[in-house]
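Posting here for the record, re: protoporphyrin IX containing FE.
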Amino acid sequence: MAETDAVSFWDELTSPINLVLVFFILYLVYKIVKSHFESVEPAAPPPPPMPKLRKDMTVAELKKYDGTDAEGRVLLAVNGIIFDVTRGKRFYGPGGPYSAFAGKDATRGLATGQVAASDTEYDDVSDLSPDEVASAKEWEDQFKEKYDIVGRLLKPGETPTVYSEEDAEDKKSL
Ligand code: HEM
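Prediction output follows.
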């Protein structure tokens, strides 16, 4: 009796329909195993890092760095220090909530809570209240933590510093 059962089980297994199913299952297992060994599509390479910029600028020179040209670099100044805020492009880039500060001296705006800046002439901000001065200083400190320093915003008649290669690498000081 047991022999009959064994034979019928084997017959069952090797019946054409079951053979087709067995091969289909083996094929699926093969596909799954293969997919594990296949390399995943390589991600798009990150854009090459922007060359570091080390330069003192006038208000007029700063103006072109508003992120709208092909390079897309964004700079802004706070308390006479120019920062490269390209990393914060979602804030300052074209269409960003703080794009009014891009390529500008943002000191007065940040000190007074106005998202607006003038690019017409040097603003000595000497009329700011002590609270506003403190607020601008807080922003300056925050920018120093987060962004690279490019140089100084030049007052009219001031001469730019000539930075060496080493200065260019030392981005956290003036
Ligand atoms: C209703 C008022 C405001 C709200 C809800 C608001 C909200 C925010 C938020 C959520 C961020 C992003 C923070 C992050 O992800 O790190 C931000 C960033 C910023 N906010 Fe505002 N903000 C307001 C008003 C202002 C005003 C009045 C100024 C200046 C005049 C200002 C200047 C900035 C700047 C400069 C940044 C970017 C800082 C960076 O580069 O990391 N915000 N704000």
